[in-house]
Amino acid sequence: MNPKRGPRRRDRHGRGLRGPLAPSHVPIARSRSERFDDFVLDAVDRLRPLWHRELSSVEFAVEEVPPLDELGDGPGKIGSDPIPLGRAEAATAVTPASVVLYRRPLEARARDRESLGAMVHDTVVEQVAALLGLSPGAVDPGYDERR
After folding, report:
1. Range of the domain at 92
2. What are the DSSP calls for 62-103, one per residue?
3. How many domains does the structure of the chain reveal?
């Protein structure tokens, strides 16, 4: 072994580089689910100035896919799409009100990141509207313009 060069490291199995390709603070290092969470937080932050009091006790969450009992047409289903993009649940004595978005169905429908951000925002507006018993246009005045 040459003392000036140090030990050689061979890539015996053709696996290429090991470890992260970018530092953790660079946007490219964020995972798809982390970027999706950022879209949800941005959408909620855009609604908070108008609906701060109403949204103060609402929990927002992201799930990968909807549970099986929410798939297909059945009683209480809104719209004709068999795969929901989110759900809103009113508060009970035990649980607070919540809005849940389903990441994979939204990502499957989006053409690119920009359209995904718009779809996430629209879905948050629709679910908040359902929770508050209002129309989406009343929750976000710009909602009807994007349609």
Report:
1. 29-69+83-146
2. EESS--GGGSSS-TT--SS-SS-SEEEE---SSS--EEEEEH
3. 1
